[in-house]
Design goal:
This is FMN reductase (NADH) RutF. This protein is α+β, with helices and mostly antiparallel strands. It is 16% helix and 38% strand. It has three helices and twelve strands, in the order H-H-E-E-E-E-E-E-H-E-E-E-E-E-E. The structure holds flavin mononucleotide (FMN).
Length: 185
C-alpha cells in the first residue's frame, strides 16, 4: 500500500493528496469488518472503545493486533505492562457499539454500567454475551502517526456463543444474510 508520502509525491498537489485520501477512505468503506469493543483497566479506571481495526496477527503463538487513535481516551491506559480484551459484538449489541463509540455522550468507566463484565485472566473487562472475548497482554507498540498499532499476546479466550456478528460496512452497521452461498460451506 502506498504511504502518505508516496501518495503526496505522486499526486503532486495538496488537492490531489486530499482526493487520494478521500478515495482511500471510500475504498475502505467497502471493506466489511466485525465490530469489537476493546477494554482495559479495572474499577473506575476502566476504559473502552469501539473498534473495527482488529486483526489476528499470528496463530502460533496466538497474537492479535489493534489500531488505536491517539485521541481515544483508552489510548494512554494501554501501557507496556497492561492488558486488554477484544470483545467481538453480536448483532443485537449495536447499542453497546454506539455507547463505546461515545455516540450517547458517555465517557470513561460509566460506559460499563449497563452490561455485565467478567474477569478471565488478565483482569481486563470481558463482556458477558459477546460472540468472543480475547484476553491479551500488551506485547508491542508501533507508532504510526495518528494511531498506535498495538500487538497483544493472547492469554485466554471465550467463544462459546453461536450468534450472528455485528458488522460495519459502507459507513453503517450491518448483519449477515442468513442464506449460505451455494459453494459457501
Ligand atoms: C464502527 C466504528 C469503528 C471504530 N474503529 C476504531 C478503531 O479501530 N480504532 C480507533 O482508535 N477508533 C475507532 N473508532 C472510534 C472510537 O470508537 C471513538 O473514537 C472513541 O470511542 C471516542 O471516544 P473516547 O475517546 O471517549 O473513548 C471506531 C468507531 C466506530 C463507530
Amino acid at each position: 500500500m502506498p504511504s502518505a508520502e508516496h501518495i503526496e509525491s505522486s499526486a503532486n498537489s495538496a488537492d490531489a493528496y486530499g482526493e487520494a485520501v478521500e478515495g482511500f477512505r471510500h475504498a475502505m468503506s467497502k471493506y466489511p469488518a466485525t465490530v469489537n469493543v476493546i477494554t482495559t483497566g479495572s474499577g473506575e479506571a476502566r476504559r473502552g472503545f469501539t473498534a473495527t481495526a482488529v486483526f489476528s496477527a499470528t496463530m502460533d503463538p496466538p497474537a492479535i493486533g489493534i489500531c488505536v487513535n491517539k485521541s481515544v481516551d483508552a489510548h494512554d491506559a494501554l501501557r507496556p505492562d497492561s492488558s486488554f480484551c477484544v470483545n467481538v459484538l453480536a448483532v443485537e449489541q449495536q447499542g453497546i457499539a454506539n455507547r463505546f463509540a461515545a455516540r450517547d455522550g458517555s465517557k470513561g468507566a460509566s460506559r460499563f454500567e449497563h452490561d455485565t463484565w467478567d474477569i478471565l485472566v488478565t483482569g481486563s473487562p470481558c463482556l458477558r454475551g459477546a460472540l468472543a472475548n480475547v484476553d491479551c497482554k500488551v506485547s508491542q507498540f508501533i507508532d504510526i502517526g495518528t494511531h498506535t498499532l498495538i500487538l497483544g499476546d493472547v492469554v485466554s479466550v471465550r467463544s462459546d456463543r453461536v450468534q450472528n456478528p455485528l458488522l460495519y460496512f459502507d459507513r453503517g452497521f450491518r448483519q449477515l444474510a442468513t442464506e449460505s452461498l451455494e459453494m459457501g460451506e
